[in-house]
Amino acid sequence: MATNTAKINWKLSLIAGLVAGGALGAGAQYYNNVPDNQACKALQAEHQTLLAELDHEKTLAKQLTEEKTQLMSDSTQKLTELNQQLDTQKKQLVALNQQLETIQKQQAQVKKKQQEQAKKLVVTKKKLDKEVVALKTQTKQQKEVIDKSSQLFEQKAKLQNELAAAQKVTADLKAQSKKSKKACDEFKSGDSWNWVSQKDCDKYNAQQAEVSKAEAKEMKLKQALAELNKKIGA
């Protein structure tokens, strides 16, 4: 009888040590846990360990119940303590399950938030890409306008120089024609004391033709310059 009692006491002490150790470990794990994948895996492993411990302790409880008829006075108190410890383990298991559920919910929320942020980044990138394309297009168009404007201003400067030269030619021809006209008029009057002849009239007529050509060229250059100014917006 004493041997059996010692054996049972040894078993109960071992169980009590396992239960107490499990309770301390569960408490430390509960307060130090972090809602991440590693912590979740640790809780799942501890969950399995507690289930195994409960199965083992249930087996021991059954053995104690079978020996209860012989050691009722000694085992009743121990069995009650064991049942209390089992209840404590069950409560701890429930708490761990709740904590595991909370962590899984937190992970789901974090994942959802990350997915939403990723979608926002994609939308932002597409928007920025469109803006970059639009800016490149606008820059290209502005460059084309600048290049075209530069060409137009070069053409304008060239036309202005040509027009100035043509106007000078026209003015010179008109001055020469004026002198020839005076000589021709004196020749036609027949009473001039100056040395004039038909050649002066022929010269005047030729100069008038040159003046007409010069004026036509001048007019053409003016029209071209006016059209160019319209393109430039001047």
Automatic annotation (TrEMBL):
Q: Which organism is it from?
A: Photobacterium leiognathi subsp. mandapamensis (Photobacterium mandapamensis)
Q: From the record, what ranges are coiled-coil?
A: 47-176, 204-231
Q: What superkingdom heads the lineage?
A: Bacteria
Q: What is this protein called?
A: Chromosome segregation ATPase
What keywords sit in the KW lines? Coiled coil
Q: Does the keyword Coiled coil apply?
A: yes
